[in-house]
Amino acid sequence: MKHESSPPLLHHHLRYSSRRISSLAKPVVYFLCLLLAYSLGYLSSSTRNNNNNINNDKLPPAVHVNAVVCRTANTVISSGFTEADHNNFGAVCGEAVPPQDVRSKIMERVFKGTSPWENFPPPHVDNFLRKKWVKGWGSKGAVFENLIRRVRPKTIIEVGTFLGASALHMVDLTRKLGLDDTQIICIDDFRGWPGFSDHPRMKDMKMVNGDVLLMYQFMQNVVQANATESVVYMPFSSGSALEKLCEWGVFGELIEVDAGHDFHSAWSDINRAFKLLKPGSEGGVIFGHDYFTAADNRGVRRAVNLFARVYNLTVQIDGQHWVFHIANRL
Ligand SMILES: C[S@@+](CC[C@H](N)C(=O)[O-])C[C@H]1O[C@@H](n2cnc3c(N)ncnc32)[C@H](O)[C@@H]1O
Ligand SMILES: *[C@@H]1O[C@H](CO)[C@@H](O)[C@H](O)[C@H]1NC(C)=O
Ligand SMILES: *[C@@H]1O[C@H](CO)[C@@H](O)[C@H](O)[C@H]1NC(C)=O
Asked: Does the keyword field hold Aminoacyl-tRNA synthetase (predicted)?
């Protein structure tokens, strides 16, 4: 597997920052930083010792200088931070909700127990929706069928749903494979991206008070596919939705990551989604689009490769998609 060499992020950052300081000023800035760091560390350690709040004598001295930030003409130099912080998305999720209760858990926590499809569509958008309008990117790739056949998931989590093309394709597949109870949790803020309705394929998108109506058109598409019982959604940013699923103990055996495609969005989504992966007897899979498309170098491929390196995983490729298979841990 081809791995790109990503530079250690922290070092890269420091190198970049220090290049901005003129060679004359550099020693002076470092000296001031050290002096400041030392005095802050000294002060905070003696204050805490006096108050006896924290059992300080067990902590190494470096802990007192958590993060000293010196700013000089766009320069930030920080300490007390390691690369491990960059990879740390917390590890503990709530106790697992049984698959048959996943839908009601989300209905209860996100929608106060009432189906969002009740009295749908609301009058203010009714005239703007099309009967069915499903567009996506690689949303019907063979990877979906390959993975659903293999994993036979009870819960699928999709991060990045748009109009529901890939989600509804997965509904079709679960029906075809007799997985009638499978729930698909769709996470999307349903905003697309700023100015996305200028996209040639989206130019007919209607807007109401600046709202591009993606969520309503997605809901309408789900109605047209008779899939309101198989699909549940969370109309929030991927970070907050995934963290809540973790807290509520909602896990999936199959997780698709296809939201923000810049490195940092992909990195964060993959890490948070990975915490929600609960391999069943057939193992579990996390996968996503744009490993091999024109968009790949925006960051998805780099994020996937870095993740593989940190967690010792092998990136598998299926069409344009990246795939991590995780064996049943039991
Ligand atoms: C490429 S589209 C998803 C396509 C879909 N998987 C398909 O194949 O039909 C990406 C989606 O991610 C959503 N998105 C981007 N960043 C997001 C974020 N931070 N939180 C939630 N959704 C986000 C956008 O609104 C957009 O609908
Ligand atoms: C949805 O259900 C209706 C009524 O039962 C049926 O006519 C239609 O073909 C179904 N559509 C799909 C996509 O299954
Ligand atoms: C990955 O493998 C290395 C070397 O074998 C090991 O030190 C490290 O703990 C592993 N990391 C994870 C997350 O399993």
From this structure: no
